[in-house]
Amino acid sequence: MSEWLVLSLAMAAACAVVLSIAFFNHRRIGEDDDPNETPDVIEYMTMMIGVIYAIVLGLAIAGVWEGRGAAQEYVRQEAQALHEISVRSQVYPAEVRTRIRADVDAYVSFVVDTEWKAMADDGELTDRGGELLERIRRDVTDYEPQTDHEGQAYQPLVDQVAVADDARSARGASAGATMPGVVWFGLITGALITVGLIFTLQIRRSFREMLLAGLFSALIAFLLFLIWDFDAPFGRGISATAEPFLTQFSHLDLGG
């Protein structure tokens, strides 16, 4: 059975149970019952729906903010690992060291100047970036150390290549939108219901009530925009930046 069918049946069953209880309860109430002696259910339900929706909004904002922070951390780890490769290759012969550093610089320049835009536009990495990283891997792993000093540096360099590769993969996985469509459906539907409930409380046209209703609606719209903006860590206004690459490789003309 489809999970969407299960969800629809569960929601329909919940509504049917509540409405049935309310219907039979209303039938057994005597004619002398005074509804003014009981609390206003409308106000209570409106308050609870608002509270529940606020919790959902808070969780959504926390989720996308955490995703953006994780994406920025992946960038930092990748830049740091590439910097370590470039620095630790100092113990290798000049020819090998120059080749490694040149390939590292080429990879970093491509990531910042070209691949970053591809992540923002398409939400995925490029094949060319993978090829450049593979070239760095071959530079490091294909060299046979000639001295004990070079041998001691070999394995740490290999490990740093693995760290950079892992960070790159994680960066690619976090490049696209993280919020599923069904979550957006729930957020937008909840916003419409929450704002619509204002009219169940007999809102009047006084300045204070209209001002508060407008500010409340604007606040929900702002929070939804904030979630949408954070949802693509590399593609929108408040996004993860390439600052770690710019800092670690300041000798390159990056981001021009």
Quick take:
The protein is mostly helical.
Key attributes of the depicted protein:
256 residues; mainly alpha; 0% strand; elongated
Protein model, in words:
The chain is mostly helical. Helix content is 75%, strand content 0%. It has helices spanning 3-28, 41-88, 94-122, 127-141, 148-173, 181-196, 207-231, 243-248. The radius of gyration is 29 Å and the shape is elongated. The two termini are 54 Å apart.
Topology, element by element:
Layout lengths: L2 H26 L12 H48 L5 H29 L4 H15 L6 H26 L7 H16 L10 H25 L11 H6 L8
Helix pairs in contact: 2-3, 2-5, 2-6, 2-7, 3-4, 4-5, 6-7
From the helix content, strand content and strand pairing, which structural class follows?
Answer: mainly alpha
Q: What is the β-strand count?
A: 0
Low-confidence stretches: none
Q: What proportion of the residues is helical, as a percent range?
A: over 70%
- What is the overall number of helices? 8
Radius of gyration: 29 Å
Shape verdict: elongated
Q: What's the SSE pattern?
A: HHHHHHHH
**What is the end-to-end distance?**
54 Å
Portion of residues in beta strands equals under 5%
Largest sheet: number of strands, sense, barrel closure: none
